[in-house]
Amino acid sequence: MKPNNEDLSYIINHLGEDHSTYFNAIAPPIIQTSNFRFETVEDMRNAFKDEMASYIYSRGINPTVDILRKKLAALDSAEDALIFNSGSAAVFAGIFANVKSGDHILSVHHPYSWTIHTFDQILSRFGVTVTYADGTDTEKFLSHVQQNTTLIFLESPNSWFLDIQDLTAIASFAKQRGIITMIDNTYCTPLYQRPIEHGIDIVMQTATKYIGGHSDTLGGVLTGSHQMMQRIFKSEYLAVGSGIQPMNAWLLLRGLRTLPARLDRIDHTTQKVLEFLKKQDRVERIIFPHDPSFPQYDLAKKQMKKAFGLLSFYIKAQNVEEIEKFCNGMKCFRMAVSWGGHESLIIPKCAGMAKADFNPKDPVHRLIRLYIGLEEADFLINDLAEGFNGIGSL
Ligand SMILES: *Cc1c(COP(=O)(O)O)cnc(C)c1O
Predict the structure, then answer these.
(1) Whether the model pTM is above 0.70
(2) Ligand 1 pocket: which residues have CB below 6 Å?
(3) What CATH class has 8-257?
């Protein structure tokens, strides 16, 4: 069989790598340089003509970063990609390159916290307005589009509530009106959801999570048409200098090698943990897109190949102390933000609010998010079982 450019194994193991240029080493080198020299004035002149395809200065294009860039573009079946020093930097650049004063953005409600900050605290200073709306009802969501809407921002699924949006319907509506669509695709990764195939213009993912996979580096990715990536490269990417550093790109490349194997394992373990949670008296309701109880189950099945890793559940509790006791008692799950690494994590919603504001009647206050990592399923299930035993029955 001849490998082709769309083959997952080809992309991850071969694409973009030219071993003959680095002593036939299997692992690509970390080209830790700020600068590149030229042999002749003519060579330099030619490089300046296309800065996005030339090694001139590492705030622009760097060879180690470029290997990762080619692979991540191909994974999304996109023409091109840009890699940033964090997911938030990628979100920032993708948004800023596509709005000007007087424009309006329609965003799903509850996007990532620093996306909200960019909208509310930064863009508002430059005369850009944002409307947040529930994206689960497509028609209602799109009714918030205004004459001056230039960007629709999606996050499907988002974290905590795992709400999803109908990507095909929203992309086709936006295309007819010349509105640019952008999605935060961190939950699924390009392995399990490919928004460009649904017509979305700009796909962002936080490489910090699954691509890195080892909780040791940050990174962010934008993919889209070459024209769109060039527009972002020539303005925000070069002006802010938020491109990823070679060492961090190398760590992400290493993480990428095992991405399919890790996601596969996380998927299997997530199923086992779900089965366990469903049998617990203390669990009021689970939020998981590929569970039949999920309100948008059919759409989730249609546009996401898999749901895995992140899930939330409402714990039955009479007071905040019970939730604290449950979380504090975890020995294998670590209490932390973020996700996508080797280690399983737990975070309760009540950690983000004043204790005095806790109201057991509000289910959101009783929400707990789990991230399932690479540990053995029984290791994790025993931990949860002990946690539930520790707070007893209601
Ligand atoms: C973590 C995260 C981000 C931000 O990524 P950083 O690398 O931490 O800047 C953005 N969106 C989602 C959905 C995330 O989970």
Answers:
(1) yes
(2) 86-88, 112, 159, 184, 186, 206, 208-209, 218, 220, 338
(3) alpha beta
